[in-house]
Amino acid sequence: MSRLALAPLPLAGLFRVQRQSLVDERGFFTRMFCADELAGAGWASPIAQINQSYTALKGTVRGMHYQQPPHAEMKLVSCLRGEVWDVALDLRQGSPTFLHWHAEHLSADNGSALLIPPGFAHGFQALTDHAELLYCHSAAYAPAAEAGLNPLDPRLAIAWPLPASQLSPRDAAQPWMAEEFEGVRL
After folding, report:
1. Given phi > 0 = left and psi -120 to 50 = alpha, else beta, which region is 172?
2. Distance CA 112, CA 25 (A)
3. What pTM was computed for the model?
4. Catalytic (active site) residue 135
């Protein structure tokens, strides 16, 4: 029995993952990851890394982060507490949706996750205080492959739902996209 329903989103390779919880008087059981069920959406590797983030204040923006090939990664992003506005930005060279972004509301209550393919940048804004995310990665973090874009770059035109606040010094210092940027070649 499938516990993860996959819904394709407007950017090729990007999926909303809807968890089907088993609920009774004791509480609930939820499958967070299943390689077999996610294979149809392109997950072909074992989980290489699992990370958790906690964001204290509503309005905080984190992102837009990605890893350069050959360390490009697929991510499954889930919200464990609170609510976030989760953004995936297509940076794939030659993609018909190059520089388009899509966002999903992820919360502890709605059971949705975002499955982000390689070649996308990822970021989010906390819509509540005390937001907690869990990330499953198909590739381990490689510091030399780390890359990012400024989440407030007008060329990206990300419509953050709240005034952006609490950017880390690293995220605030990320460059705006250069005009000659042609994308990530996978």
Report:
1. alpha
2. 22
3. 0.95
4. yes
Give me the domains of the chain, ranges plus CATH numbers.
13-172 (2.60.120.10)
pLDDT tens sequence across 78-137: 999 999 999 999 999 999 999 999 999 999 999 999 999 999 999 999 999 999 999 999
**54 carries an active-site annotation:** no
Which sign does the torsion angle of CA 130, 138, 113, 85 carry?
Answer: positive
CA-to-CA distance for 87 and 158, rounded, in angstroms? 8
Active-site residue, from 66, 102, 135, 137: 135
**Distance between CA atoms of residues 169 and 92, nearest Å:** 26
β partners of residue 87: 103, 123
Whole-Å CA distances, 56 to 4, 104, 107, 133: 29, 20, 15, 12
Note the residue count of the chain.
Answer: 186
CB-side exposure of 47: number of CA atoms within 13 Å? Answer: 15
Active-site residue, selected from the candidate residues 54, 65, 71, 122 = 65
